[in-house]
Write a structure and sequence with these properties.
Elements lengths: L2 H18 L6 E6 L2 E7 L2 H4 L6 H13 L7 E7 L3 H10 L3 E6 L24 E4 L3 H18 L1
Parallel strand pairs: 3-4, 4-5
Antiparallel strand pairs: 1-2, 1-3
């Protein structure tokens, strides 16, 4: 297992925690110099906060741990391609690299629907690595939504 897969495995564990809590199963970790400095999982339902996406929670934790909102030389690992809100937050935080697992064909903002994280009009652009553990993370999301539709 390479470093990207190891950190994505942790993000997948966090996504499972979100699922157990009744949230959409998305997990995120932020790494600097090979060490996790922030992590989070989706919590908008439990917190009644529409901004409580896994990436936002991880960004807040990393900023707190590092003592700055500028998360220079960090990598954010997330199980689902970020939405426009999260992508914009990553640009503002100056995250260096984004690694995501499953694409989001409805709201993906790292190249699938939009490409906010590399938009030429913005003052910062992220490196992107897509598809790391994409099958596992995509399957988990599909199973979650199938089960949710069946129970509705």
């Amino acid at each position: 297992m390479n470093e990207d897969e190891a950190f994505m495995s942790r993000a997948l564990e966090l996504a499972r925690a979100a699922e157990r809590a009744g949230e959409v199963p998305v997990g995120a970790v932020i790494v600097k110099d090979g060490v996790i400095v922030g992590e989070g999982w989706n919590r908008p339902i439990s917190t009644r906060d529409p901004t409580a996406h896994a990436e936002i929670i991880a960004l807040r934790a990393a900023a707190d741990a590092l003592g700055t909102y500028r998360l220079l030389d960090t990598t954010l690992y997330v199980t689902l391609e970020p939405c426009p809100m999260c992508a914009g937050a990553m640009v503002h935080a100056r995250v260096k690299r984004l690694v995501y697992a499953a694409t989001d064909p409805r709201a993906g903002a790292a190249g699938t629907v939009f490409n906010i994280v590399q938009h030429p009009s913005l003052n910062h652009r992220l490196e992107i690595e897509a598809g790391v553990m994409g099958r596992e993370c995509g399957a988990m999301l599909r199973e979650f939504f199938v089960a949710r539709r069946q129970s509705a």
